[in-house]
Amino acid sequence: MFFRRYAGAVLSMSAGAALGFGAGGLVNSPVWGAWTGAALGVLFHEVRDQMRGQRLLRWLRAVQATDAGHAQAELGNGPRDRGHWGELAYRIEKLLRHREVALAVEKARLADFLSAIEASPNGVLLIDGNEQIAWCNSVAADHFGLDPVRDRNQRVTNLLRAPGFVAHLQAPASDEPIAMRTPKGDSMLSVLVRHYGQGMRLVLSHDVTERLRNEAMRRDFVANVSHEIRTPLTVLAGFVETLVNLPLTDVERQRVLTLMTQQTQRMQNLVADLLALAQLEGSPRPSADTWVSVALLLSQAETEARGLSRGRHELSFPDPEAESLARLQLAGSQNELLSCLANLVGNAVRYTPEGGRIEVNCSVRADGSAVLTVRDNGIGIAREHLPRLTERFYRVDGSRSRETGGTGLGLSIVKHIVQRHGGDLQVESEPGKGSLFRLVFPAPRVRHGAGSGASVPLTSVVEATLH
Fold first, then answer.
1. Whose CA is closest to 126, among 220, 202, 206?
2. Kind and range of the H or E run holding 454
3. Which of 54, 59, 123, 334 is the most buried (most CB within 10 A)?
4. Which residues pair with 400 in a beta bridge?
C-alpha cells in the first residue's frame, strides 16, 4: 500500500539521485554527486508534485465556473493521479457528486413546493428584506397586476402604490387583513401580510368579490322580504284596527274584508314563492330519464291563462293534437316545467293591457330543435331593465306589479328552473313592440316520444312574454 501510494515519489527521487551520482562520477567528486543527486531527486519530485496539484486546481476551477444549473451534468472526473493528489481529487469529486445529488433533490422539492403554491386559489407573494419581489404565483400576479418574471427583484412599493397596501406592508405584524381593490378596479381583495425570517414577508391575497356580492345580495334579500311582508301586514293591521274601533256598515265591512283577503293572499303568494325558491336552490337537478309531454304542459298553461284572463285578451295556443306537437317531450320535473311556463304565460296575461293579443306557438326546426313561443303586443320593456329582470324583487314598475299581485320572484323562479334543466333564459323586448322571453333547453333533455320510433334528441326553446 505504501509503495503504491508513494511509488512515483520514490522513482522521481531515484532518477534524480542516479543523475546526480552520474554527474559526480564525471567530475570525480562523490560528495558533490551525492548532494547533486539528492537535489535533483527532490526537484524532480516537486516538479511532478506541482504538476499534479495544478491539474487538480484546474479541474476545481472548471467545476466552480460551471453554471449551477448544469453542474451535475458537466462535472467530469477528477485527475486520476497516484499519491495523495489522486486520493484528494477522488475525495473532492465524491463530495461534489454527493452535493450535486443533494442539490438535485432539494431543487425537486422546491419545484414541487412552488407547484403546490401555484395551484393554490389564493395569491402568494414573497418579499425579501429590501421589499423586493422574490417570487409570486400566477394568482398573485393577476391580483396585483404583476409579471412573475419581469417584476422579480423589483421593489414592490414601486409597483403597488395603494396607500392601504403600503401601510399594511410596512406596519408591524398583524393578524387582521385589509381590503383593497385590484389595480384594474374590477375586484376586491383581502390581503394579509405575514412576517418571517430576516425581514422577509409573505403576502397572501384572496378575491372576495363574489363573497361581498353574495353578502350584499343576502342583505338586500332580507331587506326586500321584510319590506314586502311589512307592507301587507301594515295594511292588515290598519283594517283590523278599523274593524275594532269604527262602526261600519255591512257594505264597508265587506269591502274591508275583501281588501284584507287580498293582502293575505299577497303574503301567501310571497311565502309560497320564497319556499319554491328555497326548494329549487337546495334540491338536486331533475332526472334526465323522466319525460314530460310538451302538449300537456301547453294545455295546462292554456287553462290557467284563460282563467286568469277571463276573456280580456285574445289568446292563441297551438293544437295539442298536431302531429309535430303530440310526441314532443322534455326531460325533467313536470311540476317545475309547468311552473316555469305558467309563470311566463301568467305574467303575459297580467301585464298585457285588456284587448291585447297573447300568442303561443309550437314548431320543430330543421335541425331538430323544438320551439315554443309566447308573445304579446304590449308596451314592452326598456333596454336598461333587461339585465336585471331575473333579480329577486326587481320590478320595472313596482306600483303596477303590486296592483296585479306580483311578488317580484316569478322570473327568479323561472331562471332557476331553466338552469336546473340545463337551459338558458334569454330576454328580448322593445318599448312599444312587446316583450319576448326565451327558455333554451339542451338537446339531451328533448326528444320525440313513443310512436315515433327511435328517440330523436331535440333542443327545446320556450319563448314567453312579459313586461
1. 202
2. none
3. 123
4. none
